[in-house]
């Protein structure tokens, strides 16, 4: 399976390129709904974004930021990464998105920006940022236990703030820390000075110094989280799937799937940049804390529902604030098919059960749709509704899935 670029890296690269001291090129960019919403928003705010030869190669030319309209869709990266940029625009920027996006938590970052000098009306979508051409910046304390994107959103634009920014987290542990590591690594690659707890800074505190953002030619890694449904397909069917261009070192949370699948009994090898998964005769259940890699939960829940032995998925209470309440959605959909899934305060307990066919709702959530597709490989008669929602991060998922299965005609296939 050859996969498109990482959404998380693509949208971070777009923000940094918009603030850079010269034109940048992004190669291997993801072109999905989330990425295209980010591109459209940057263009509306005055940033030049042009295709250079093909759709996945982008040339970004910074320019004066102006007022405009931002459609966030359901993209957390758009609704949390762009408000700091908008606060430095010369004009009014209106933010809105899909109806479902209006329930996603945003108050943390919007209130933080107010504390840094921004003028913002509203605490959730729709909201309005009145830019004044610059932002003071400074020190702010937030509770980022709901999403690491609150920290990343503030850090990405902070070098352009007059005083930079110091972000201190006060609350339960921040989820998805690899995404903050990704943000810090990319900032440093762009020449920005960042101090973190791991580099001598205070605990739960990140400091970005003011200064130029260097123009960088970004090469985007494949999206490893989007690889997980395909690797899971091998694991649940006893088949084999290989993914080329797998990085030997990465900050992407999706890399954790290697250890997860191995713990559940699959044979996992990485050689010469190719990750290969061979499924076992029967998967084992797993007891795992997914706090740092919560986006893998739908894939792991599907694996656990098809495994032998009880599984405990922990540390993922923050998933209740994603595209949907993923914990309730996973429990409901698996139980509808005969599963035995119980919600806990911070996760799911999944007990093996005989599953049967039926409709699997996606809740306009791309990872819920792919979880249903995994179940449908083993259980006859699973009908996944609205599989098109996968275009949020992986356009063409349905065709890629069908192509993968063409060599295994006896394998049940969820209908879309």
Automatic annotation (TrEMBL):
<keyword id="KW-0963">Cytoplasm</keyword>
<feature type="binding site">
    <location>
        <position position="7"/>
    </location>
    <ligand>
        <name>3-phosphoshikimate</name>
    </ligand>
</feature>
<comment type="function">
    <text>Catalyzes the transfer of the enolpyruvyl moiety of phosphoenolpyruvate (PEP) to the 5-hydroxyl of shikimate-3-phosphate (S3P) to produce enolpyruvyl shikimate-3-phosphate and inorganic phosphate.</text>
</comment>
<dbReference type="GO" id="GO:0009073">
    <property type="term" value="P:aromatic amino acid family biosynthetic process"/>
</dbReference>
<feature type="binding site">
    <location>
        <position position="149"/>
    </location>
    <ligand>
        <name>3-phosphoshikimate</name>
    </ligand>
</feature>
<dbReference type="InterPro" id="IPR023193">
    <property type="entry name" value="EPSP_synthase_CS"/>
</dbReference>
<feature type="domain" description="Enolpyruvate transferase">
    <location>
        <begin position="2"/>
        <end position="400"/>
    </location>
</feature>
<dbReference type="GO" id="GO:0003866">
    <property type="term" value="F:3-phosphoshikimate 1-carboxyvinyltransferase activity"/>
</dbReference>
<feature type="binding site">
    <location>
        <position position="148"/>
    </location>
    <ligand>
        <name>3-phosphoshikimate</name>
    </ligand>
</feature>
<keyword id="KW-0057">Aromatic amino acid biosynthesis</keyword>
<feature type="binding site">
    <location>
        <position position="104"/>
    </location>
    <ligand>
        <name>phosphoenolpyruvate</name>
    </ligand>
</feature>
<feature type="binding site">
    <location>
        <position position="7"/>
    </location>
    <ligand>
        <name>phosphoenolpyruvate</name>
    </ligand>
</feature>
<comment type="similarity">
    <text>Belongs to the EPSP synthase family.</text>
</comment>
<feature type="binding site">
    <location>
        <position position="322"/>
    </location>
    <ligand>
        <name>3-phosphoshikimate</name>
    </ligand>
</feature>
<dbReference type="Pfam" id="PF00275">
    <property type="entry name" value="EPSP_synthase"/>
</dbReference>
<feature type="binding site">
    <location>
        <position position="176"/>
    </location>
    <ligand>
        <name>3-phosphoshikimate</name>
    </ligand>
</feature>
<feature type="binding site">
    <location>
        <position position="295"/>
    </location>
    <ligand>
        <name>3-phosphoshikimate</name>
    </ligand>
</feature>
<feature type="binding site">
    <location>
        <position position="8"/>
    </location>
    <ligand>
        <name>3-phosphoshikimate</name>
    </ligand>
</feature>
<feature type="binding site">
    <location>
        <position position="12"/>
    </location>
    <ligand>
        <name>3-phosphoshikimate</name>
    </ligand>
</feature>
<feature type="binding site">
    <location>
        <position position="149"/>
    </location>
    <ligand>
        <name>phosphoenolpyruvate</name>
    </ligand>
</feature>
<comment type="subunit">
    <text>Monomer.</text>
</comment>
<feature type="active site" description="Proton acceptor">
    <location>
        <position position="295"/>
    </location>
</feature>
<dbReference type="GO" id="GO:0005737">
    <property type="term" value="C:cytoplasm"/>
</dbReference>
<feature type="binding site">
    <location>
        <position position="392"/>
    </location>
    <ligand>
        <name>phosphoenolpyruvate</name>
    </ligand>
</feature>
<dbReference type="GO" id="GO:0008652">
    <property type="term" value="P:amino acid biosynthetic process"/>
</dbReference>
<keyword id="KW-0808">Transferase</keyword>
<keyword id="KW-0028">Amino-acid biosynthesis</keyword>
<feature type="binding site">
    <location>
        <position position="326"/>
    </location>
    <ligand>
        <name>phosphoenolpyruvate</name>
    </ligand>
</feature>
<dbReference type="InterPro" id="IPR006264">
    <property type="entry name" value="EPSP_synthase"/>
</dbReference>
<feature type="binding site">
    <location>
        <position position="147"/>
    </location>
    <ligand>
        <name>3-phosphoshikimate</name>
    </ligand>
</feature>
<protein>
    <recommendedName>
        <fullName>3-phosphoshikimate 1-carboxyvinyltransferase</fullName>
        <ecNumber>2.5.1.19</ecNumber>
    </recommendedName>
</protein>
<dbReference type="InterPro" id="IPR013792">
    <property type="entry name" value="RNA3'P_cycl/enolpyr_Trfase_a/b"/>
</dbReference>
<comment type="pathway">
    <text>Metabolic intermediate biosynthesis; chorismate biosynthesis; chorismate from D-erythrose 4-phosphate and phosphoenolpyruvate: step 6/7.</text>
</comment>
<dbReference type="GO" id="GO:0009423">
    <property type="term" value="P:chorismate biosynthetic process"/>
</dbReference>
<feature type="binding site">
    <location>
        <position position="367"/>
    </location>
    <ligand>
        <name>phosphoenolpyruvate</name>
    </ligand>
</feature>
<dbReference type="InterPro" id="IPR001986">
    <property type="entry name" value="Enolpyruvate_Tfrase_dom"/>
</dbReference>
<feature type="binding site">
    <location>
        <position position="76"/>
    </location>
    <ligand>
        <name>phosphoenolpyruvate</name>
    </ligand>
</feature>
<dbReference type="InterPro" id="IPR036968">
    <property type="entry name" value="Enolpyruvate_Tfrase_sf"/>
</dbReference>
